[in-house]
Amino acid sequence: METLTYLMQGFEVALTPLNLSLALLGAFLGTIIGALPGLGPSNGVAILIPVAFSLHLPPATALIMLTSVYYGAMYGGRISSILLNIPGDEPALMTTLDGFPMAKQGKAGEALAISALSSFVGGVIATFGLLLFAPLLARFALYFGPAEYFVLFVLAFTTIGGISSKNQFKSLMAAALGLMIATIGLDPATGEPRYTLNKMELFEGVNFLVAIVGLFAISEILFFLEDSHAGNVVQVKVNKFKLKWNEMFKLTGTTLRSSLIGFIAGVLPGAGASLGSFMSYTIEKRMVDYDGKFGTGDPRGVAAPEAGNNAAAGGALVPMLTLGVPGSGTTAVLLAMLMSMNITPGPLLFQQHPDVVWGLIAALFIGNFMLLILNLPLVGFFAKLLMVPSHVLMPIVAIVGLIGIYSISHSPFDLFVMISFGVGGWLLRKLDIPLVPIILGILLGQLMEDNLRRALNISNGDWTVLWRSPLAIGLWIMAIGGLLLPFFIGKFFRIKKAEPEPEIPD
After folding, report:
1. Fewest beta carbons less than 10 Å away: which of 2, 298, 320, 360?
2. Rounded mean pLDDT of 141-159?
3. Between the CA of residue 298 and those of 91, 271, 285, 292, what are the distances in Å?
4. What is the per-residue pLDDT for 128?
5. Do the bridges between strand 185-186 and strand 193-194 make them parallel or antiparallel, or are there none, so unpaired?
6. By C-alpha distance, which of 139, 63, 155 is closest to 343?
């Protein structure tokens, strides 16, 4: 009953004209961003964070808008996957296996409709999961002390690569780089400058918003400049779908099963929507594909990954809000936005900022309906956006990033730092070194150091405090398991970008 009362208060926050209009705008922009190959939800949210700050939006409003962008990008990623066989982001990879064959059979409209409805179900189930489990996890997290929080951050770093990571060593190396960057600035204990190069602008450390926009948005621009060809227009045709409700009803079991699998995968720190999409598709194929139709244009092969990745997107918000540990790369960006507004996610967030949490949960319910309404009738419009040449799109992205960062700090130095991070991100991506662990290191490095010092002060320097409690021991076991598991079973879960194109029967 108490939860229902809080939810009603959340709807009062979400249904204000400003929040409602920005949720609609975020869903629309997110769908566009997701439809454009390569951008994805992390880049979309990173690009629009400066806009949220330049408009001086309240924390609840900013989080509602950016989370709508997040959900919208998850919806939009299916468009290029189905129509062009080019996934908008990594979680949409599995959608290409059956979505593109359906498009080649003249059923692009049906495939897009199935993906939209499955994404809607997955998103709604994940929001119910967030509503039910986040408050419980927040109460449980009150038992965490400094030592347990330190181990929890270690767990986040050891699992951030996930079992879908290409190279676990590179993920750890990227996390170490992020932790090194987090040490730049004044030592919180002694006040001594650390690695500031005698630059006053670095005494407060590296602004993680500058790092995020540089690593994601600017590096993406550099990749587009390198790979794209000006004026390269792709012709896309979308038929009017004739999907019958009885056909959609046959997909109910697939959609519900995949939504539950995706939500569980999303709650796991570091797993994210990629694992949710892959596990949903793989498990569903083993359960129902008796005649080998998966990979040849089976509607169940579209519904499963779409429900899974959208449910995982909602599940990833649970550890971010309750523990302050992001469940995916995009939630790491959202975590940075909240921290920059002096709001620290964790077990006390539900007590200190109930308007932010419950307003967000209510907005997610509303946003899923908005996205369904947007995506069904406007599929043709979003498909035409794939024809926009990159030499037109990328300058807009660059201008938004530069103006947004300058409007936050009014410092030309931050613009040079952002560009430096962009060039560095481009080089790291060339080496297949993931960027998300770097962001996580910058975000959590200071908190990790503070909790370690606090735990050692309480124990008078006794390091055994880090594994003294049963909770800490359990977290250490999970961290070690998350570190070693990919080396043994990663090849079974690793998502392959280069899949052979299935033959379509005549």
Report:
1. 2
2. 78
3. 18, 26, 10, 9
4. 87
5. antiparallel
6. 63
How distant, in Å, are the alpha carbons of 158, 220, 414 from that of 345? 20, 28, 26
What is the phi/psi pair of residue 185, to 5°? 125, -165
pLDDT tens digit sequence for 12-21: 888 888 888 8
Q: Confirm if 34 and 71 have CB atoms less than 8 A apart.
A: no
Closest to 202 (Cα-Cα) out of 416, 354, 465: 416
Q: At what angle do helices 329-340 and 59-84 cross, to 10 degrees?
A: 160
Rounded CA gap, 59 and 166, in Å? 35
**What is the C-alpha to C-alpha distance for residues 420 and 425, in angstroms, rounded to an integer?**
8
Residue 272 has a pLDDT of: 59
Q: Is 150 exposed, middle or buried (0-12, 13-18, 19+ CB in 10 A)?
A: buried
- What's the rounded Cα separation, in Å, for the pair 330 and 345? 15
Q: Which residues pair with 186 in a beta bridge?
A: 193
Could you give the dihedral angle defined by the CA atoms of residues 38, 276, 164 and 102, in that order, rounded to the nearest 10 degrees? -60
Sign (positive/negative) of CA torsion 95, 98, 103, 104?
A: positive
- Record the tokens describing residue 354, joined without a space: 């109930």
Q: What is the residue-wise DSSP string for 403-447?
A: HHHHHHH--HHHHHHHHHHHHHHHHHHHTT--SHHHHHHHHHHHH
Helix, coil or strand: residue 376: coil
pLDDT single digits (tens) 453-499: 888 888 888 888 888 888 888 888 888 877 776 666 555 544 444 44
Range with lowest mean pLDDT among 185-199, 324-338, 456-470: 324-338
Residue 85 CA: distances (Å) to CA of 40, 225, 237 = 15, 22, 13
DSSP at 90? G
Q: Taking the alpha carbons of 298, 302, 305, 307 in that order, is the dihedral positive or negative?
A: negative
pTM over 0.85: no
> Measured in whole angstroms, how far is the alpha carbon of residue 171 from the centre of its chain?
17
Q: What does the alpha-carbon distance between residue 67 and residue 360 come to, in Å, rounded to a whole number?
A: 8
Q: Which two tokens stand for residue 108?
A: 């692009």
* Burial classification of residue 208, based on how many CB atoms lie within 10 Å of its CB (0-12 exposed, 13-18 middle, 19 or more buried): buried
Instruction: Please report the pLDDT score of residue 427 as a whole number.
Output: 92
Helix (H, G, I), strand (E, B) or coil at 185: strand
The SS3 call for residue 36 is: coil
pLDDT at 380: 66
Are residues 92 and 78 in contact, defined by beta-carbon separation less than 8 angstroms? yes
Helix, coil or strand: residue 237 = coil
DSSP secondary structure code for residue 499 in this structure? P
Would you state the pLDDT for residue 503?
Answer: 46
Q: Tell me how far apart the alpha carbons of residues 288 and 385 are, in angstroms, rounded to a whole number.
A: 35
CA distance readout (Å), 490 to 155, 156, 161, 169, 309: 18, 18, 11, 13, 19
